[in-house]
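Researcher: Quick one. two chains, 840 residues in total.
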Amino acid sequence: MFTQIQFPSRSEYASICERPALEQGTLDTLIADVFTQVKKSGDQALRDLTISFEKREITDILYTTEEINLKSAQTDPTLQKAIDQAYANIYAFHEAQKLVTTKIEINPGVFCWQKATGIDKVGIYIPGGTAPLFSTVLMLAIPARIAGCLEVVLCTPAVHPAIFYAAKICGITKMAKIGGSQAVAALSLGTESIPAVYKIFGPGNQYVTAAKMYANRLGTAIDMPAGPSELAVYADSTAIPAYIASDLLSQAEHGIDSQVILVSTSAEIISETIIEITSQLISLPRKEMAEKALANSKFVLVANEKDAIDLLNEYAAEHLILACDKAEDFADEIRNAGSIFLGNYTPESAGDYASGTNHTLPTNGFARAYSGVNLDSFTKKITLQSISKQGLEQLGNTIIDMAEAESLQAHANAVKIRLN
Amino acid sequence: MFTQIQFPSRSEYASICERPALEQGTLDTLIADVFTQVKKSGDQALRDLTISFEKREITDILYTTEEINLKSAQTDPTLQKAIDQAYANIYAFHEAQKLVTTKIEINPGVFCWQKATGIDKVGIYIPGGTAPLFSTVLMLAIPARIAGCLEVVLCTPAVHPAIFYAAKICGITKMAKIGGSQAVAALSLGTESIPAVYKIFGPGNQYVTAAKMYANRLGTAIDMPAGPSELAVYADSTAIPAYIASDLLSQAEHGIDSQVILVSTSAEIISETIIEITSQLISLPRKEMAEKALANSKFVLVANEKDAIDLLNEYAAEHLILACDKAEDFADEIRNAGSIFLGNYTPESAGDYASGTNHTLPTNGFARAYSGVNLDSFTKKITLQSISKQGLEQLGNTIIDMAEAESLQAHANAVKIRLN
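Model:
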């Protein structure tokens, strides 16, 4: 069941880092049709498509405040308390990311600065399915609120009370009962009930992902390209196999396409971890799913720390656990990862739920170029500048010389006319 | 030639803010073919396509350091000095954007932080064409350098010495002679001479833009969707019509599809600006281009400042000049814009070249959801967390309760096994 690789050469790194190929565009006709229907018939299309795709009848597209309050109140009080602590931590970590506007006097009389403004209208998609992802409501709606987004529209077919509880405490402005690609189409195009938003966030199945890519081509921004979730663990001889096994399993239970990789300098740690996985697996409710995911897993023995760093940087994991001595020094060498978990007492599930960091992260190697969702994701940074007459006098010749060399005379004239 | 609109109602704002429809996907077959050829034949495909598209023969794909030095040295010394000042200002403004890593103790023993890491490999595309955009080399290569990108590959068919001078002082690591969609394909896929990069930046014609969108679908990140350049000016009665006219013309000379809009509370300012445009236009070398662009321009008289703010926020201009009293207060109300220029002595061309801000900005209304290029564009923000046993004890129940409510038992187990 476990693929073990020993002392791979550099030329083998690429194949170790390979993810399963993602389908490209095979759903495009179906998605284009959904968008056409939603554009043409708005809310009615959403009702029709929900019956046709989900066999679910809806009359009103949006939940009323009363409905949200009622559902929310059904959340188990212990769970409410847990969500409240997670909310506080996620809020604190994302609020600390706020841009502090500093005016810089670049030259005498030339002031430049940035300000961050929330994206006016954003949409959040939360799938139905086996796991009611109220934690993802927190991860997306809290930074939206801190950013100052004016309209935060949540679309979800999920009905777990905690989804409503999270939506309520996060100040969601509209909550719609719809799911699937039709929800993404509605957020992108707008209907009578659902405002068109400028950016769409959130996980989903292949239809939702394809619809987000389609919306993106139409001009709606999206959080990031999506792929199956993944975890890499680096373990040296100080690691604890039972803990590593529990982390690998927590990733594997997400779905059969989850990616799991263990890189270690210790053959003993690898073999003990495999034994631990086998024994912990037995009692898991999502055992079969995890088992299938583990069939894609890789256990890689490397000669030294340097090789581990190079391989992990090439892999660019969504989640990276460093179960090793001097984990912070090791982390300094990591250039590509979504989120890094240091030491033996920092399981990935801490960041999935409650430590404060975001769990919406780049998969499939996208961590080489993309950040995970953070406060930036919900804002635009606008640059501003204010120049005095004296400032322009100092800068004027530079602008004129460069504009004229680029054959843009009117650009030069805009300075000349002000200084003459 | 000038479209004048007086006191539009709110329902007319959407049509005022409309941009010309961008072509969607009509070039896809051609672009797909270019990518197929580059994937199959690498450097040889680049040679063949450069002959076929540009009638230009190239042997080596890359410039040597000696070639770059030689070409660079041909740059006019006055222009070198101008570029040096621009370099220093752009460097200073972007360096100030560096993330200051701050560890936050979210709960006792629970530490979370972010670090910014440069994207390892980035590509910059600079078009040939009428204007040799060495300024864009500065705007993209300086933040790449500050971010710590390891490989910065510049592709350009342009041969103006200042392009080489800019490439040299910015520390470009590789410079290739190729242009067009084949350059984008090479950056996305890699060839013998050109490394595959993780993110592609830079302007270009419809072929380059379509190739960037295509590369993006293959998994290469891009700076932002591109459209024709645009300028909105807000002017109250304190504005100076000759200055406004010079700014509108500096935008209009970019190309026949440039977008220009003047919003004012003063009918007099509008009519005087139109007179000024007509008189300044005569002597421009790119007069015909500017004239055609001005045919799409709009001059909008609004009843009051509030209407101007609402209209400008709906328009979401790439460049926004505020030629008005209390420009900073006005700017505080602007939620959507790429870059804002305050007061009578801050022409757009200052930001285009030398004040320090970036000139690669969101067009076509994308400023509603996208920032312009800044230091963030060249980095990923990685989150890190380190939790002590005591920290996990405090956070443990919250994680367990949430994971179990989401039916993710292995997530809960990863905590339980550490605390038992």
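The CA atoms of residues 358 and 374 of chain B lie 7 Å apart.
Researcher: Thanks, that's what I needed.
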